[in-house]
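The pair is quoted verbatim underneath.

:::
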Amino acid sequence: MKILVSDKLAEEGINILRDVGEFKVDVKIGLQPEDLRKVIKDYNAIIVRSATKVTADVIREAEKLRVIGRAGVGLDNVDLFAATEKGIVVMNAPAGNTISTCEHTMSMLVALARNIPQANSSVKRGEWKRSKFMGVELYKKTLGIVGLGRIGTEVAKRALSFGMKVVAFDPYLSNEVGKTLGIEMVELEQLLRIADFITLHTPLTENTRHLISNEEFALMKQGVRIVNCARGGIIDEEALIKAIRQGKVAGASLDVFEKEPPPSEYELLKLDNIITTPHLGASTEEAQINVAVEIAECVRDYLLGRGIRNSANYPQIEPEVYKILAPYINLAEQLGNFSSQLTKGRPKMVSIQYSGGISQHNVAPITMALVKGFLTPILKESVNFVNARSLAEARGLKVKETRLSSEEEFVNLISVRIVTDEETRQIWATLSPNRQPRIVKIDDFYVELSPRGNLIVIKNWDRPGIIGNLGTLLGEHNINIAGMTFGRKEPGGEAISVLNVDSPISSELLEKIKNIDNIQSVKLIELGG
């Protein structure tokens, strides 16, 4: 079997592959896209970092490719949908750079508090201006951590050893888990109001893009300091520039930017109280070895039939069983994703019930898929089929699974009950006669909707004219309705309307929809496929 390593990878990882007699490993760094498309047809596996783009065009030419390995966490440079369609397993190495990024965050935090880079440059210019670089102590200050995953948790441990008070916002972590770490879990608005230092550790998603912008800066303490070693785009950089110039933000340490590398004339780089590094969070010798070894072992084991680990798109199932379960795995992942976006509050429990013929099979892979779908909107590429259950457990999210052999209202049914600190929701899903995913009930309302693309979920009073007004408004904004379903308990009472639309809905249009007479609430849901 042939393996292509197309980005610089630590020798420790390459040697793991070369030690297998059945493998032939080619290291070809710096391939241009057209060259990669030409050679990929000969390889069973490819291992990349961030430079190589494994696009749909590349995957289309991959005749023998079975696995794509990403030595790192992010999968922005891999077309996951195209790989999945072609049956190619995509793996990453989510744990290898945890300590490296954590330590870089702490370095940036200390440097920010004590003006170390600025003072260093001053002394090297022959100056001795001690008073100019007066700093602040971390001791007894409040650190707000946005996103308490692997890296955020490690940062919290180290901040506590500095004598800091640590508060955190993570919608997928229970208050009980926070307490065991010595951390107070708070809502984002409260964190912004009380933190002296703020550090960000979330993936970049549509929900987290510009999570910190003008409105959020306005809530912060005067003189707050901010660290971002996660992803560029979580902070609205223009808003940050404004907040620094106004004195609201005393300083910021940035390892990542909205555009990398940032333009040399970028105004942000001209501000003295901004500390910058060129995306060095994972740039330690140890981290590079760790991710190389981790991904090499995963790829080796998969090619040798020893199982699948750290897969972003595929559970471990025997081929014969997979043929039966595949459509239910897809259904469950979409159901989880839909339920996660529909439900308000901090989730405490996901209770899944299988009924009918599907309950006679091993439903563990389906449960994994549902939990993965549920966690994906917030954790993005950090969650996969393998780690979904453990990530849920680490966040205090209880996952319950029950099976009923008897048929309920549908021949095969997956129902999920979500319990949060604000509400309880129940959603039912099944397969259509042509084995396509369908959501058939939301709480007490029977519906018939396809969980894919862009959806508008509306709770409304059952009154004449609502759909006409909604259709007119969407038409005025050139939004095409691809599908529509309605559900109600009784004429004139509460109802639910769900629309599949062909285009994303802007925040401005969302407000207009909310203002239509007899509409109680509107929720936008974005699903893949």
